[in-house]
Design a protein that fits this description.
This protein is of the alpha+beta class and 399 residues long. It is 33% helix and 27% strand. Strands 5, 6, 7, 13, 14, 15, 16, 17 and 18 form a nine-stranded mixed sheet that branches. The chain starts with a strand and ends with a helix.
Length: 399
């Protein structure tokens, strides 16, 4: 089969990219390949459903620009397509005086990114927003919300297919062959040809890029598992909406927090531990080849040597419910170990360069026959329509 464009990866970014490409040119023939039995089975289907506002990201960065633009587009899409969402607002709380300068910097970033109404609040105001929350200083961010990204992805799928896009499920890419014009993509179920491809493979984006490229890899996708607990039903009253800590500036993770879910219930977490398998949602999941690929990467070795104490703390929370509870008690002292029941887990596709840098921004690279989305962790779901628009603009230049 011959196509203008092949998209690899049926997560929310791949679907948004296909939809945006067909909006720009309805005559394009586009195939989207997904190795699973359904779309949105991994990062899209395992996140906490937060509609991010753009608070955390350096002004002018791809994350900041795409999150703010994607936020607006996401709300418009959900409203027009009948996908339920709710703008809840959230509080970000400093639990020690040492965190106050970082909290103030967050507010500066948020205002620079256009988050009108974001402000520092008094501790009395904090109690009005979240009666059981404790801290020494706090922000209120009105733009944050919640949604079920699985439902968003299904709506993207429907719009993509209505516009003429084709989706091939259970088509795992095994080889990519360059041609004089375009490329051939070999899958577990057949062969397709295209003028160029878009790599939105998430946890496997680095492997797809290596298949297509003749250059040595500059980044590797390192899988970090985030594990959640849920508050028991009778204790959900402890959280009204969303409560976040001040994040550690050394890491692109937001720390353990409380999130009211669109599906119902309240999640608490996640931690962030190295997964021993790309799609390792359980502690027992292990793939020798993928594990070796991660731990032999020079960049991860440098991260581990520098931040091993932080890593041990994350693993302690992974194996100790008591340690996890203590971390949560910094935000809500009334939370007890008995209030928590095991929740789900997600795996974050985090790009790491050779020099020990965990990439903090989105990374989109172009090659002769491809556009590679090599780093698109949170807030990629919020940003998906904006990222898709960026990819569509790059794609149009190729055709």
């Amino acid at each position: 089969m011959k196509y203008d464009i092949i998209i690899i990866g049926g997560g929310i970014v791949g679907l948004a990219s296909g939809m945006k490409l067909l909006e720009k040119n309805p005559n394009l023939k586009i195939a989207l390949l997904e190795k699973e039995k359904e779309i949105a089975m991994h990062q899209t289907g395992h996140n906490s459903g937060v509609i991010h506002s753009g608070l955390y990201y350096k002004p002018g960065s791809l994350k900041a620009v795409n999150c703010v633009q994607g936020y607006k587009q996401l709300l418009e899409f959900c409203s027009s397509e009948g996908v339920p969402y709710e703008i809840t607002g959230k509080v970000v709380v400093a639990t020690s005086r040492e965190q106050i300068p970082l909290l103030n910097k967050l507010l500066e970033r948020g205002l620079a990114n256009g988050l009108k109404g974001s402000r520092a609040i008094t501790l009395d105001e904090l109690k009005e927003y979240e009666p059981y929350c404790a801290g020494v200083a706090a922000l209120h961010i009105p733009q944050t919300g919640i949604v079920d990204y699985g439902k968003v992805a299904m709506a993207f799928k429907r719009k993509f297919m209505e516009a003429g896009g084709e989706i091939y499920l259970e088509h795992k890419v095994t080889e990519i062959l360059p041609q004089p014009v375009g490329l051939t993509v070999v899958t577990s179920k057949g062969t397709l040809e295209a003028k160029f491809m878009v790599n939105c493979a998430g946890l496997y984006a680095d492997k797809i890029a290596e298949m297509e490229s003749t250059s040595p890899p500059t980044i590797r996708i390192i899988p970090f598992r985030g594990e959640y607990y849920k508050l028991k039903k009778e204790r959900e009253y402890l959280v009204k909406n969303l409560i976040y800590p001040v994040p550690d500036p050394n890491f692109p993770f937001l720390g353990v927090h409380f999130t009211r879910m669109m599906k119902g219930g309240v999640e608490a977490g996640p931690n962030a531990v190295l997964a021993f398998k790309k799609e390792g949602y359980k502690r027992s999941d292990f793939d020798m080849k993928e594990f070796i690929s991660s731990v032999t990467w020079p960049g991860l070795q440098k991260v581990a040597s520098k931040y091993w104490k932080t890593g041990l703390g994350e693993y302690k929370r992974s194996f100790s419910k008591k340690a996890f509870t203590i971390a949560l008690q910094e935000l809500i002292p009334d939370v007890q170990e008995s209030d928590l029941e095991e929740g789900g887990a997600g795996v974050r596709a985090q790009a790491c360069d050779k020099h020990g840098g965990l990439l903090d921004d989105f990374a989109i690279q172009e090659s002769a026959h491809a556009i590679h989305v090599l780093n698109a962790p949170s807030p990629a779901a919020t940003s998906a329509l904006s990222i898709g628009e960026t990819i569509a603009e790059l794609g149009m230049k190729r055709l």
